[in-house]
Structure formats: structure tokens, C-alpha cells
Amino acid sequence: MFFDPDTEGLSAPPSATAAWLGTISAKLRTKLAKLGLIDAEGQAPTLVEHLGRWMERKRTGLKPASLLVWRHSIRDLTALLGDKPLTELTHEDGERFRRAMLERGLRTTTVHKRLQHVRAMLEDAVRLNVLDKNPWRYVGYKSGDPSERPAYVPWDAGNRLLDVCPDGFWRLAIVLSRRIPCGPRRRATWPKPSH
After folding, report:
1. CATH number for domain 2-144, candidates 1.10.150.130, 3.40.640.10, 3.40.50.150, 3.40.50.1470
2. Which site among 24, 35, 111, 152 is 20 to 30 Å from 167 CA-CA?
3. Tens-of-pLDDT digits for all 195 residues of the chain?
4. CA-CA distance, 125 to 37, in Å (whole number)?
């Protein structure tokens, strides 16, 4: 079965593709199965099979921390959808995945990032010609706003920072800005001293 974006439903694979699969040699069928394009009987891989193969291909190029984050996305996806055939994924499955993460209380940035990961995994299936189109292409969620979670730096921590500044220029810059960067796209403000 293939996702048909025009009707937003499932339809049978194109007859030309089904006919061609019936005529290929066992050797070519084995090669296609090893690439994850079909299973040994000529069917598309399941979600779990595709994600496992995807992780194996990506394992060499990613840092361990990145692999861990990608595994979280895969864990959540397989927990919800199980071993569903890859070609039977629908847009509604993506919406259900998004809702499930929100119901678990995950932050908006986490939901956004995990959806981004899964869309990339499904785009890989499109690139490998397992899927005609990515059914989750338009499943999205807003990214988080760092200003919604400011981190306050205690006054004494600010003073310790001023003590280790190399010169007056740096001390002046910190005092005038009253804002200290605390990681990417996140800022911390100093509370006003209480006298």
C-alpha cells in the first residue's frame, strides 16, 4: 500500500511497479531487500526495519550525543506506531505522534525537534524510493521560544564573573549589558540587588 496525497488515503502500489517486481531476478530482489527498498517477499519494509537500517547508515557520521537524541525520537515513534508497514504511514499518524508527545508534557522545542528528526527519516525513505512522498511533510510544530524560560543569574555569581574578567573593558561590557549569554539562543538576566 502507498500513501496517496491527492486522496489522503491508502492505495495499491502502481501496477507497473507491482508487475516489474514480479519479473526481477532473485539476485536483484536480494539486493533491493538489503537496501531496505523491499522485503524478501517484495513488500516495503516496516517502520521498525526502516528506522533500524537508517540508524545503521547514520551511526558512523554522528556524534554519540546526536545518536542518543535520534534514538529518543525512534523510541517514541515505535512505541506509538509499533511495527506498522512504512508505506501505510499517513499524515494522521504524524498528528497522533505530535499529540502523544504533547500529552506527555514534552516542551515545545522537544516536540519540534523530534518531528524534525522523523521527517528526515521519512525523507530518507523517499530518497531510497521506498515511499513516493513523505506523508509527514506537513506535520509540524512551532519551535520553543527561549524568552519563555529565562534563567536568572544570582547577584553573587555575577560578581564572581566580574572578578575573573581580564580587564576593565570586559567588566564594563558585562555591567552595562546586565545580560549574560547562557548557551545558544538563551539569555540570562541579573536580578536587581536588594539593599
Report:
1. 1.10.150.130
2. 152
3. 333 345 443 344 565 665 677 677 667 777 777 776 665 565 667 888 888 888 888 888 778 888 888 899 999 999 998 888 888 889 999 999 999 999 999 988 889 999 999 999 999 888 887 788 898 888 877 776 666 666 667 778 878 888 899 998 888 887 776 654 444 444 555 556 665
4. 8
